[in-house]
Design brief:
By secondary structure, this protein is α/β, with parallel strands linked by helices. Helix content is about 40%, strand content about 20%. It has a single domain, classed as Rossmann fold. The chain is built from four helices and six strands. The longest helix is centred in the last third of the chain and has 19 residues.
């Protein structure tokens, strides 16, 4: 489903996304949304994303709830099925000095569920592409 773009780097990005069946997006929360660089990477191409699955993991001072919801809406517009649960990490409790990632063990079951569900949905959606 990928198309030809005028820049080699965009063609490489298009080809990579086209060959994958699913994704797990990890995003910080920035101004109650995702970062502009992630938004640009998603928006720069289009049909390559369709009918695939995505898990979402966010981190921030408020568990990146707003960023996760924003990303879910963005991905929905591209026909990407987002799975639940979402991974949510706090800068205050899951990062040492707000810089070094040290997640609490309580997240393990949720993260395994994010991965397992994303893989399963990715396999299922492959049948309709």
């Amino acid at each position: 489903a990928n198309k030809e773009y005028s820049q080699d780097t965009v063609n490489a990005w298009s080809q990579k996304i086209d060959e994958l069946d699913g994704f797990i997006f990890i995003t910080p929360e920035y101004n109650k949304s995702i970062t502009s660089s992630l938004k640009n990477a998603i928006d720069y191409i289009g049909p390559e994303w369709g009918n695939k699955a995505a898990g979402i993991v966010g981190y921030g001072s408020t568990l990146a709830v707003a960023a996760t919801l924003s990303l879910r809406q963005i991905l929905g517009n591209l026909n990407i099925a987002t799975v639940t649960p979402f991974g949510a990490f706090s800068l205050f409790t899951d990062f040492e000095n707000m810089t070094t990632f040290k997640p609490a063990e309580i997240h393990n079951a949720t993260m395994e569920n994010v991965i397992t569900t994303t893989v399963n949905w990715s396999k299922g959606l492959k049948t309709i592409r």
